[in-house]
Amino acid sequence: MRRLFMWVIVLLALLAPGAAQAQISVDGRAASLTLGGRLHTQYQASSVDGAVSDFFIRRARFLVDADFTEFVTARVQSDFAGGGASLLDAYIRLNFDPSFRLYMGQFKRSFDIFYLDSSTDLSIFERDGRIPGLSTCGGVGRICSYGQFTDALDYADRDTGIKIDGTAGTFLYQASLTNGTGVGVSDENDGKSIALRGGVAVTEELVLSGNLGVHDYVVEDDTEQAVAWSADAQWGTWRDGLLVQAALVSGDNWRLLDASDDPRRFLAFQAMGSFYSPLDGDRLEAVEPLFRVSFGDPARALDDDGGTLVTPGIMFYFMGKNKIGANLDYYIPDTGDSEFVFRTGAFLYF
User: Fold this and answer.
1) Residue 125 gets which letter from DSSP?
2) Tens of pLDDT along 26-42?
3) Strand pairing category for 286-297 and 339-349
């Protein structure tokens, strides 16, 4: 049944791309509402012994953007994939000026270019390149990839608190103060997590940015602070020829302690490139080959405990952000056998 559902969705997307691109605007009791969402279907097959191939719904999200006035706006986004429901985005935004906006609620922390990018833009199926059935990376599990460190160590992705952002000329920034416990989880201590991000548009194509994250965590009823920093660069824009993103991150692996109960220091790097090439066909709008390389070391003081992830892939666009394609995530650990997972599916945006 799940396989049939997936292919029905893909077929409908190919036959009726206009419907997948549409958004609905309605008038609410006190605001103008824009309704939208996304549906990401996926099939994956892993080389790891015992791992099963699987058809599943990766994302099934519905969102409501509410415009009360030009000054007050809000967003609510829920995800219904995986047989349950979770609240992802839920915030009010006060638009004082393009150079200063204030968010209150649940949103993405101000850290990591790859997690700040929307999944509606990404052409990689999994930010961390996870391999089903494989969990070997010290402290963070799964594999030693850039995205696995920033996510599993709670420096990136969604949290609850307050946030500011803005642009002024070629300078852009954002900063967040959050609980540090992630989506829908109440704070566990009196500490708070901080994330800071600032960048500059060097040219129309090149943006350079830096990030600083301070994450609070609990060890034997005591609150500790873990620190991470990163630097990233982006050349190009989405769906417009060549796009290259690269980032380096290092910091405290607070889930992996040394003999003195101090966090180990991790290091990770990732570069990703794609080339969006328009087509003249009636059904396909563009083709986009892509490639990613990601390296991660969970403890710099230890040898042969990291790994390298490479991801070739291709996407076929049939309208706007709506596309179908495939990725091959191939993981090469410093010790042990290499493993891979093949992924294919559809990304629908409506």
Assistant:
1) S
2) 877 889 999 999 999 99
3) unpaired
